[in-house]
Amino acid sequence: MAMTAVARETVFALRRQIAKIEGTLPERLAAPAGASPDDIADVTVVRRGLAVASHDAFLRTGVEPLDAALGGGLPKTALSEIHGTETRDAGAVAGFALSLAGLILARQPGLPVLWVGTSEIFREAGFPYAGGLRSLFGIAPEQLLFSEAPRLLDALWIAEEAARMTALAAVILEIRGSPRPLDLTATRRLHARAQDAGRPVFLLRQAGEAEPTAAPVRLIVSAAPSASRATIAGPLAGSIGRPAFTVGIGKSRTALPGQFTLEWNPDEHVFEERRGKERTKDSVAVVSASRRRPHPAPASGAVLAFPAVAAPASGDQPPRHERPAHRRPRRAG
Questions:
Q1: Among 126, 119, 113, 191, residue whose Cα is nearest residue 152
Q2: Which string of b and e fits 266-275 if b means at least 16 CB within 10 Å?
């Protein structure tokens, strides 16, 4: 239903006020040339005051359902959050960030990526293995730079200064927990630097709470069970396939919450969506064989029918020397 003129003017007045608070140029809120009033009423502000976003404004993951849910993909000129709800998810979060960095460097091969973190972060999660960067993600070791800061305030300052540099393809800031300096003001500065330089900034959170930030998109990433390795004859039982991620949309200005299972193809350096529910099967027995029966007991989780309680047969009684001591007759002394 088309909006009335009064309602449309009220909406644009609110957008102009929001743009003034956020520091967005008022010209970006202008209606596209040649657009009718009905078209203007249906326009969605996809990224911080932008009424129209070009196709090149997003980093596409290659998974159509996820890109469509995000309104085209992750914004290239913005701050994006990648959360790991637990500390053990730090490896999955780092692997997902390296996958995104590989997609970016494939389009900008001459620029490096800067990874900023504190000493605590790198002691807890470690550094990426240089030997696997090229084979798994298509990243040359010299294209990934690291900056280890002694304090969180220093890491934030380094990330802000690096985010405004056009000599970098992207900036990755990794933070543990929910520290007080990482507030709404700090994330607004990072988001503004990314917009000014036209480069993405990824904020990696280890075991962090979902707090208000200026990032338009927040993804919740964790490790997913790997499927079996695919061969010509079919899935190879007992093998470990491609790295897999469970990606949930925790916050987005254009998308509804959703969850996807992605696999990273280390040969083609692209994401692929897992559509099946295949998991790696364990080929070894998990229940040992019974002592008095030739066949193993049913697997764990099966419903067993137990016979009625009755007096044990004489052949099932243990020898006298194996009986409990309290059941032996007492000696009279």
A1: 119
A2: beebbbbebe
Per-residue pLDDT of the chain (333 residues; tens, 9 = 90+): 445 666 666 766 776 677 666 554 444 444 444 444 444 333 333 344 443 455 578 999 999 999 999 988 999 999 999 999 998 899 999 999 999 999 999 998 889 999 999 998 888 888 898 889 999 999 999 999 999 999 999 999 999 999 999 899 999 999 998 899 999 999 999 999 999 999 999 999 988 888 889 999 999 999 999 888 888 888 888 888 899 999 999 988 777 778 999 999 999 999 999 875 544 444 333 444 444 555 555 555 555 555 555 555 555 555 665 555 555 444 443
Instruction: Retrieve residue 300's tokens.
Output: 């764990």
Taking the whole predicted model, whether its pTM rises above 0.70 is answered as: no
- Burial profile 93-120: b = 16 or more Cβ within 10 angstroms, e = fewer: bbbbbbbbbbbbbeeeeebbbbbbbbeb
